[in-house]
Every structure is written in structure tokens, then in C-alpha cells.
Amino acid sequence: MLTSKAALITGSTSGIGLAIAQALAANGCNIVLNGLGDPTAIEQTRSHMAREYGVSVFYHGADLSQSDEIEAMMAYAEDQLGGIDILVNNAGIQHVALTEDFPVEKWNAIIAINMNSNFHTTRLALPGMKRKNWGRIINIASAHGLVGSAQKSAYVTAKHGVVGFTKVTGLETAKTGITVNAICPGWVRTELVEKQIAARATADNISVEAAATSLLVEKQPSLQFVTPAALADTALFLCGSSADQITGTTISMDGGWTAQ
């Protein structure tokens, strides 16, 4: 189904993004990875994926807070793969503080990477998708794109923006073969969340596992973390023909968080 499609996944050197990249590669997609990390480890990931799945895998280290670097990454994808058929906007960062204490540079970085980068990749991917009359744009938003939490003003603002952007772009492309959707995970035990768990463990003088349980009890009724593999399966479904009429919407994967 996806053989020879070209997919670019931001924030795909670890966690959710890597799981989605691997799932797409396993289904025949050629891949452009993007993200942070040790260059040697990234190259090992890239080369292993190419061997494992028999597809072309490239890497571009664009800083997603910089629009000119995003433009360079998208031009690279065009040169290497002839454009992007599947765009997964996954990259994100986090900082926790009261609004009056929130560092301005942290606010600006979160808005740039978690929200603005989605606009830049999408605006650059859409012309090629429209020429082919086929495309899939999947924005990894968050439960925090639907509800708020204290001390996360920038993250919640950015993720609400991603959900709104998804709706508008879905409407604008509704008469084409392009779909635009957002997946809204609850707690996923990624590196980003591990930092929050560790901070809670330190603040409350409890074990890391007790802090993880405390995090789930507070928000996620299932008391289970969402897995990157489950998110990857959902992304694959959105890329398939069964999802042709799913566009401009959000899919919550949050163990009941936003049902409350």
C-alpha cells in the first residue's frame, strides 16, 4: 500500500517519532529522519532501518526552531526522494513553570518547535501533495491540545494551536486526496515524560516508579502508559485507504484522560 511513498518524520531519532518511522519503513516507505542525538547513534539507526526494511533512509538535522533550516530540510527531501507523500509532525520540547516565572526563551522555543514548525513543514509539503492529489499529514498533538494543565502554558498553547491548524488545513484540502489529522496522546513514557517523572520523584522524595504511578493516577484513568507502537499503528491506519474520509480531526489516545 505504501511502497515507494516518501515520508518525513520530525523528532524521529527516538521515542514516538522513531516508532512511526520504523512502522512506515516496514510498510515500504522511504524515510527522512530528523531529530537530535549523538551523530554516531543516529547513523546506526539510519543504516539499520535501511538494511532491515530494504528502503532508502536519509537524515537531516534541521533545527526546527529555524524556518530557514526547515526549508533546507524540505528541499533535501525533494532532492533525495522527489518530495514528501507522508508528513508526520512529531518533534516537541517541554518546560514546566508558572506563567509569571516562565522563561521567555523557553516560551519562544516551545512555540517555535511544537507549533510553528508544523506550519513550515506543511506549507512546503502541500504543493507537491496537491500535484499528486495524494498526501497524509499527521500532527502529533497531545491531550494537552484539548485540555490544560497548570505550569504548562507554552506547551498547552502550542498543542492547542496544532489542533486548530489541523482543522483548518483539513478543511482547505478536503476536496483533494490529502488528509490532515492530529493524534492526541496522553502520557507516553518517552524521554520527555521521563524527565517529568524524575522531577516529580525528586520533588516528592519518592521512587521513580512511584512518581510514574502518581503521574498516571492524576490524569490517565487507564493507569497505563500509551505505547509508541500503538501510536505508530494509528499513524499507519491514517495513511491507509480506510482513512480517506478522516480529515481535520483529532484522535485521542489517552486512556480516558480527556473523557473526564
Descriptive report:
- The protein is an alpha/beta fold.
- The chain folds into 2 domains: 6-186 and 227-252, NAD(P)-binding Rossmann-like Domain (Rossmann fold, 3-Layer(aba) Sandwich), CATH 3.40.50.720; 187-225, no CATH class.
- It has 8 helices and 7 strands; from the N terminus they run βαβαβαβαβαβαααβ.
- The chain has helices at 15-26, 39-53, 67-81, 104-132, 153-172, 191-204, 208-219, 228-239, and strands at 6-9, 30-33, 57-59, 86-89, 135-140, 178-185, 249-253.
- Strands 3-2-1-4-5-6-7 form a 7-stranded parallel sheet, sandwiched between helices.
- β2 (30-33), α2 (39-53) and β3 form a beta-alpha-beta unit.
- The protein is globular, with a radius of gyration of 18 Å.
- The protein starts with 5 loop residues before the first strand and ends in a 7-residue tail after the last strand.
Report the CATH topology name of the largest domain. Answer: Rossmann fold
Write the CATH architecture name of the largest domain: 3-Layer(aba) Sandwich
Spans of 5+ residues with little confidence (pLDDT < 50)? none
> Strands of the largest sheet, in order across it?
3-2-1-4-5-6-7
The gross shape turns out to be globular
Q: What is the helix content?
A: 40-55%
The whole-angstrom Rg is: 18 Å
Task: Describe the sheet with the most strands.
Answer: 7 strands, parallel
Count of discrete alpha- or pi-helical segments spanning 4 or more residues: 8
**Strand portion, in percent?**
5-15%
What structural class do the secondary elements suggest?
alpha/beta
Q: Alpha-carbon distance between the termini? A: 37 Å
Q: What name goes with the CATH superfamily of the largest domain?
A: NAD(P)-binding Rossmann-like Domain
DSSP strand tally: 7
The CATH class of the largest domain? Alpha Beta
